[in-house]
Each structure stands twice: as structure tokens, then as C-alpha cells.
Specification:
flat; mainly alpha
Length: 94
């Protein structure tokens, strides 16, 4: 299973695997239940380790599209601003 392989890679220090793991938990799939808490954990770890834009986008999706305690428009906006600033988009500073 891809998830097990990605978890092994992450344990070995492959930072890129972390955002993929987050995506798997965010979306769920065959033999993997959707788990936003685990998705957020791996996305946040990916951001901490190497500032993954893909992980920021994953958190944006979770906080924007989710209901209940995961829905947070303020966090969504903050993550979008961080992404825009990290890529040097001119509108990020206005």
C-alpha cells in the first residue's frame, strides 16, 4: 500500500513524503479512512520541515471546505497569505 511506503519514507527523513501522507488522510481512499486530524498533523510537519506549499494548500482545503471544528476561514486566509508571500506574489503585500 502506498501509505505504508510513504510512512516509511517519512521516517527515513524524506520530507516530501509528508505532504503526500497528508493528502491521503485528507481525501481517504481504498483501505484508508478520511482523517482530517492526521492530515493536518502531516501537513503541519511538512510545513515545519521544509515549508511545503502543497501542505499549505492542503490545510487551506481542510479549513475552507470542512464543517465543524475544522472549518476556519481566518486560518484559510492566513495560509493563503503565507503562500502568496513565499512565492513573492506582488499582491501579497498590498
Amino acid at each position: 500500500m502506498a501509505l505504508n511506503e510513504l510512512l516509511s519514507l517519512a521516517e527515513e527523513g524524506c520530507n516530501e513524503a509528508l505532504s503526500y501522507i497528508g493528502s491521503i488522510y485528507e481525501l481517504g481512499g481504498e483501505n484508508v479512512d478520511r482523517d482530517y486530524d492526521k492530515a493536518k498533523y502531516y501537513y503541519e510537519k511538512s510545513i515545519q520541515r521544509f515549508g511545503s506549499v502543497a501542505a499549505y494548500l492542503g490545510l487551506v482545503r481542510i479549513h475552507f471546505n470542512s464543517s465543524g471544528s475544522n472549518h476556519d476561514c481566518h486560518k484559510t486566509l492566513r495560509y493563503c497569505e503565507t503562500i502568496a508571500e513565499s512565492i513573492g506574489h506582488p499582491e501579497a503585500y498590498s
